[in-house]
Design brief:
By secondary structure, the chain is α/β, with parallel strands linked by helices. It has a single domain, classed as Rossmann fold (3-Layer(aba) Sandwich). Helices cover about 30% and strands about 20% of the residues. It has an 8-stranded mixed beta sheet, sandwiched between helices. It is globular.
């Protein structure tokens, strides 16, 4: 497809694309979606446990059925999406179980506090606290610790990575980001029309999410709040990014990948023709969705130095 065009050819595997709504959350639907996300939150995941963090957030920890090593497990922190304003870690249970058993790693998904009740820096602080919990756990090999996240979770993962690089206390093995939400300036003009091909996340939702997250800091966002505003990416770990050409975040993700490469960071950018935002969640059985999921697993496998099982 041609970016900026009103016409789009969706990926042939994504047969439901034209039936999908323009966005998955609005100011009116946010509260209901938040309530649905809390269902079952107090139940421990299969083969795992719930852990309370000092910030008031919690972790859903998934231990591998067959560990890769007795000397220390590789670890992955998964950060859920939801435009910074909805979502829950329970929705990542299937992904976390797959990663735990495929990689022989401990995988933790963080239930970070949500805006507008808890704007920046609360969600980011929660994700950083989750990483600290993993890095200091006696069963974890802290030299093999990676981040992954989808959409807003990918943006928070990139922000946590930046904090980690600045602090220097933990050296991350990598970050795997699926259509990450990185730049508050994308679709910031409410007068500009959205391309008609957008699905599940549009400009109005993007402004809502960033606005609630940044709160009073929206006019002058701190550099650690918005990953795309950071100018120095030197020292970042190997990065994998996947995004579709029919995704609102396509251009910002491509620019971020280019910035990483310009800083000397190893970065793989997977561009998926005709894929819309959240395509893998909306159509998980589609071949392109399964392929993208496998690509993320293989990227994490390389970062964590895990042999195929």
């Amino acid at each position: 497809m041609a970016r900026g065009s009103d016409a789009v050819t969706f990926h042939p595997d994504l047969t439901r694309a034209r039936l999908m709504p323009r966005t998955s959350v609005t100011a009116r639907s946010r509260r209901l979606l938040r309530a649905l996300g809390r269902l079952g939150a107090g139940q421990s995941p299969r083969g795992g446990e719930l852990v309370a963090l000092p910030t008031g957030a919690h972790l859903r920890v998934h231990w591998p059925t067959t560990p890769t090593s007795d000397d220390g497990l590789p670890a992955v922190l998964q950060i859920h999406g939801g435009g910074l304003i909805i979502g829950s870690p329970r929705g990542s249970d299937a992904l976390c179980r797959t990663l735990a058993d495929t990689l022989g790693a401990v995988v933790a998904s963080v239930g970070y506090r949500l805006p507008p009740e808890h704007p920046y820096p609360a969600p980011l602080d929660d994700c950083e606290a989750a990483l600290t919990w993993l890095a200091t756990h006696p069963r974890v090999d802290r030299s093999r610790l990676a981040l992954t996240g989808d959409s807003a979770g990918g943006g928070l993962a990139a922000a946590v990575t930046a904090r980690t690089v600045d602090a220097g206390a933990v050296t991350l093995a990598g970050q795997a980001l699926l259509y990450p939400m990185l730049d508050d300036r994308t679709a910031a003009d409410p007068q500009a029309a959205d391309p008609p091909y957008l699905r599940l996340w549009n400009g109005a939702s993007n402004r809502l999410g960033w606005g609630m997250y940044l709160g009073e800091r929206a006019a002058t966002p701190p550099t650690d709040a918005v990953p795309a505003r950071r100018t120095d990416l030197t020292g970042f770990p190997p990065t994998w990014i996947a995004v579709g050409t029919a995704d609102l975040f396509h251009d910002e993700d491509a620019r971020y990948a280019a910035s990483l490469r310009a800083a000397g960071v190893e970065c793989e950018l997977v561009t998926i023709p005709g894929a819309y935002h959240g395509f893998d969640v909306a159509e998980p059985r589609a071949a392109i969705s399964r392929d993208t999921a496998q690509r993320r697993i293989e990227a994490l496998r390389r970062m964590l130095a895990v042999a195929p099982r």
